[in-house]
From TrEMBL:
Highest taxon, organism lineage: Bacteria
GO MF terms, alphabetically ordered: fatty acyl-CoA hydrolase activity
Classification via Pfam families: 4HBT_2 (PF13279)
Protein name per UniProt: Thioesterase
């Protein structure tokens, strides 16, 4: 797990639900933040993708909850993009407590790159990411 890209967040009070747990929608926001941070670490900026006429889209997200997360908890979020041969790709993310590495949640995402003119997914998203990345190794390309 040490070789996976990781972002740390601290849970804030306004991110919790009535039970004091991190709100489910906020898990998705933190997961998206980690995905963008991975892209940024690889040198892939949103403006560069837009200049190529593409933008990332979320096709599906699934959250698996394992443990409670409450105000003040630090959470490390891993992020790994997995490319196949098709138009979409998967992103697998885990949320762990940094002190004891307890798995608190997992987020599984299916995404793609949308051609902004024809409004369809591009055939090979890897090529677009690789074309704009200054450090494609961070991204696994």
């Amino acid at each position: 797990m040490a070789d996976l890209f990781t972002v740390r967040v601290t849970v804030r009070g306004y991110e919790t639900d009535a039970q004091g747990h991190l709100n489910g929608n906020v898990y998705l926001q933190h997961a998206e933040h980690a995905r963008w941070e991975l892209l940024r670490a690889a040198g892939i900026e949103q403006k560069a993708l837009l200049a190529k006429g593409v933008g990332p889209v979320n096709l599906e997200s699934t959250i698996r909850y394992h443990r409670e997360v409450v105000v003040g908890d630090d959470v490390d979020i891993t992020c790994a993009f997995i490319f196949g041969e098709g138009k979409s790709f998967r992103v697998e993310q885990t949320f762990h407590r940094p002190d004891d590495n307890t798995l608190v949640a997992e987020v599984f995402n299916v995404g793609g790159l949308l051609d902004l003119k024809v409004r369809k997914l591009v055939a090979d998203p890897r090529e677009y990411f690789r074309a704009v990345a200054s450090d494609p190794g961070v991204f696994g390309l």
